[in-house]
Design brief:
The structure holds two protein chains of two kinds.
Chain A: E1 2-6, E2 9-11, E3 18-20, E4 23-25, E5 31-33, H1 35-49, E6 55-62, H2 67-76, E7 80-85, H3 92-105, E8 110-114, H4 125-133, E9 137-147, E10 150-157, E11 160-167, E12 170-174, H5 186-192, E13 197-201, E14 212-217, E15 226-229, H6 233-247
Parallel strand pairs in A: 1-6, 1-8, 6-7, 7-13, 8-12, 9-12
Antiparallel strand pairs in A: 2-5, 3-4, 9-10, 10-11
Chain B: E1 2-5, E2 8-9, E3 12-13, H1 15-30, E4 37-43, H2 47-53, E5 59-64, H3 73-86, E6 91-95, H4 98-110, E7 115-125, E8 128-135, E9 140-147, E10 151-155, E11 171-174, E12 185-191, E13 204-208, H5 215-229, E14 232-235, H6 237-241, E15 262-266, H7 272-275, E16 283-288, E17 301-304, H8 307-319
Parallel strand pairs in B: 1-4, 1-6, 4-5, 5-11, 6-10, 7-10, 13-14, 13-15, 15-16, 16-17
Antiparallel strand pairs in B: 2-3, 7-8, 8-9
Classes of the chains: A alpha/beta, B alpha/beta.
Chain lengths: 252, 320
């Protein structure tokens, strides 16, 4: 079988966000593979290590720099990578067209993608891709096993978690708790440099985004910031309760 | 028409639905064409839900079918897309719940429509819809726009004011649906504990982090304070990973996003991944030993000190 793992390159969560020209500026910031996508690469590797014969293909869409994130996936153990190069920011619905076409071309039967994108906070890519392929999807997976063409596992739903079974082909979204992504070892980093990185242009995918990104701003809420010293415990407790009752009026 | 897909829980229309009604009423005023508001109720044994929402909209469409007893992304998206097409909807409003954000992309693709995700504000003018939503783990507010005959929008819970019901009820109609057979088979469920108010709907949330010391400390300080205030309980990723609390209580990037009137952080230092799940709360209160903890930078009120002494003292004060 062939597994596609979709990789995104995002700002490291510990970096601060800067806005220039109405958009988030990423220059001079540390960029990493989206943590949510790391769980997908790791899960694909684990399925293979459990004895399933699988080729693992990491896919990314974006400017030349996203190849760094693909290299990380290759160093973790993915077999090859496909980079669809574009400087245009695509919304999840537009992007799903690229991913669905690649899945068809590559004859993949399983796609992994992170549950939420750490930059656009979107959840939509997996279900949108599944819809285009007429596949089912399972989101927010926290445990997964594959036996033959049957996936079983656990995932989070609105009001708790559910156990499920699902026949391939399918799209699966990954999250914290599914596994512990491995760190690439030095020998594997060296090996990954020889692995195939195929470049594709966006044109062949015939993508027409319907969403326009107008502006971005950092809205800092002004906080009252009354921080008390808690050395005198009863006095601090009494003062805090008084502030919450009579100034903020948030408790009875 | 503007179509609202009704969210409900335990036999009652959810607060998120009343918030969608507000969004729909605002849109109806701004938009030309047919500004009527239609609610779609999907499920099995949902007559009380349909009757309740009838007091908020112009028309209620009801699909009360055994096949819809359980939510499924393929079922829900097929039903919503069919109704939106037949009713020539211009905007489809879907709740920003886990399920809403899961099936809405399928609806958008079926309708060849743009998807505006998890919006916090909405404006419509003719066929153009402009919205704001959060990006970068809720650190950035972005404005997005789409011009289309039909758009699919998910509404972030807890942002719009919930609408009030009217006295008169709109007419209800049963609808016929062509439904696919769901392929995801649910074989078991673990419900979240529901003894307290739900985390995403609560007016007050009390959350705990490593600073509470242990699972017992969480019960002693965080749960006790939550119970005293009638609040929901939240937790940081660190203590969920440590097994002190269930994942369902996790607030942050990989857990739930909450926006209560008051958020009380006990023994939480304030990692970016946690802040992204609660930094839009109206009033933030922090109690932590470390004066340099990032949580104090976004706090309205706080005490630097020992949680194990301060929380019992606060409880005593509240009971006075």
């Amino acid at each position: 079988m062939r597994i596609l793992t979709y990789i995104r390159q995002v700002l490291d969560a510990e970096e601060s966000v800067h806005i220039t020209n109405n958009a988030v500026a990423l220059e001079n910031s540390k960029l990493v593979m989206d943590t949510m996508d790391e769980y997908g690469v790791e899960e694909a590797l684990r399925l293979r290590e459990s004895g399933i014969e699988a080729e693992i293909v990491a896919v990314a869409v974006g400017p030349a720099r996203v190849q760094d994130a693909l290299r990380t996936a290759l160093a973790m153990g993915a077999d090859r990578a496909i980079h669809v190069e574009t400087d245009i920011r695509l919304d999840a619905i537009a992007l799903s067209k690229v991913l669905a076409k690649l899945a068809t071309q590559e004859e993949a039967t399983l796609i992994f993608s992170g549950g939420q994108q750490a930059d656009w906070d979107s959840h939509a890519l997996a279900a949108a891709t599944a819809e285009r392929l007429h596949w089912p999807q399972v989101t927010w997976t926290s445990a997964l096993e594959l036996s033959g063409t049957t996936l079983t596992g656990k995932h989070d739903a609105d009001d708790g978690s559910e156990s499920f079974t699902l026949e391939l082909p399918a799209v699966v979204t990954t999250q914290q708790g599914l596994n512990e992504p491995r760190y690439p070892t030095l020998p594997n980093i060296m090996k990954s440099k020889k692995k195939e990185m195929r470049k594709e242009s966006l044109e062949q995918f015939d993508v027409a985004p319907k969403l326009k990104f107008i502006s971005a701003e950092i809205q800092v809420k002004n906080r009252i910031n009354k921080i008390l010293d808690g050395k005198d415990v009863p006095a601090a407790a009494a003062q805090l309760v008084d502030l919450l009752r009579n100034e903020a009026r948030v408790i009875a | 028409m503007i179509l609202i897909v009704v969210e409900y829980t335990s036999g009652k229309v959810s607060k998120s639905t009343w918030e969608m009604v507000t969004a729909a009423r605002e849109l109806a005023q701004q938009k030309g064409g047919d500004p009527s508001i239609t609610a779609l109720v999907l499920g099995s044994g949902i007559a009380p839900i349909a009757a309740e929402i009838a007091r908020a909209v112009d028309q209620v469409l009801v699909a009360d079918l055994p096949a819809l007893a359980q939510y499924d992304a393929e079922l829900w998206s097929a039903a919503v897309a069919q109704i939106a097409t037949e009713g020539e909807a211009s905007i489809v409003l879907i709740g920003g719940s886990r399920s809403g954000r899961e099936y809405s992309p399928r609806v958008a693709i079926k309708l060849d429509a743009p998807l505006l995700e998890d919006v916090i504000s909405l404006k419509a003018s003719g066929d153009t819809i402009t919205a704001q939503h959060y990006t970068y783990l809720a650190r950035v507010t972005e404005t997005i726009e789409a011009t289309a005959a039909i758009a699919v929008v998910t509404i972030k819970p807890g942002v719009f004011n919930p609408a009030s019901p009217r006295t008169e009820s709109a007419e209800q109609f049963d609808v016929d649906l062509n439904l696919p057979t769901p392929r995801l088979k649910v074989t078991g469920k673990t419900a979240e504990r529901s003894s307290r108010v739900s985390l995403t709907e609560a007016e007050i949330v009390v959350s705990g982090g490593r600073g509470v010391g242990s699972a017992e400390g969480f019960t002693q300080y965080v749960e006790a304070l939550a119970d005293q205030l009638g609040a929901a309980v939240g937790a940081t990723r660190a203590i969920v990973d440590a097994g002190w609390r269930p994942y369902s209580e996790q607030v942050g990037q990989t857990g739930k996003t909450v926006q209560p009137k008051t958020y009380i952080a006990i023994g939480i230092s304030g990692a970016v991944q946690h802040l992204s799940g609660m930094n839009k709360s109206k009033t933030i209160v922090a109690i932590n030993r470390d004066a340099e903890a990032p949580i104090f930078k976004i706090a309205d009120y706080g005490i630097v000190g020992d949680v194990t002494q301060l929380v019992p003292a606060i409880l005593t004060e509240l009971k006075k």
